[in-house]
Amino acid sequence: MKLIEGRGLHYRYDEEGVINGLDFFADAKELVAVIGPNGSGKSTLFKLLTGILKPQRGEVLLEGRSVKAYSRREISQRMALVAQEGMGDFPFTVMDVVLMGRAPYLKGFAFEGKGDMEKAMWAIEVTDLSRLYKRNVQELSGGERQRTFIARALAQDTNLLFLDEPTAFLDIKHQIALLRLIKELNIKYEKTIISVTHDINLASYFYDRIVLLSGGEVFASGTPEEVITETNLREVYEAEITVDTNPVFMRPRITISGGLMK
Fold first, then answer.
1. What is the model's pLDDT at position 185?
2. Span 2-78+158-260: which CATH code?
């Protein structure tokens, strides 16, 4: 079942076309990574799929229905986005941030009830934040903050999660911990997860399907073995790249083997 689908999506900023007739889908319970060079349309695709932007042509379907048929509240009860932006300088605690995920279920100016608190505490426990839930978010490490934002999305109680560069600015230890959490959420809790990432190797090791964008279109889509090939990557990234097999993950691994292609 296609949980979310973009059909013939077009979007341009001024005269520059960013998304050009792009078709995209994710099935229920899939773990999908979207990769591609800068300017290939990754962030714009995310904004179109999550309703931040409206396609100038084409349509987005959620659970088989046009997103136009849903209210903003209904969409927020079905999909959650973890963006790169933080919480600014506001003195929110971890619990404050996680409880924000319950907003789509609150009416008017109502406060969170027992069920909302239970959902928030579950999200905090799953993301290993129990000892930090009273801490100010600004006092946390990058990895802890990222887990907090994922906990907020989990408290939102949706089947579909969008993650925008989830491992950006994290060290190797926190990258691995976060990706293991993403894998657990997909397998154990059956979340459909779509991530935009620049890290091709991590995408290859942890994700089940890779979508490679180029020039606002899908250049290739499939398993890591099908998409992460020297032919594909050299053409799209215009760089000399060698692909072999990682001996631990048994997935494709890339190595920069030279300068830019001429």
1. 93
2. 3.40.50.300
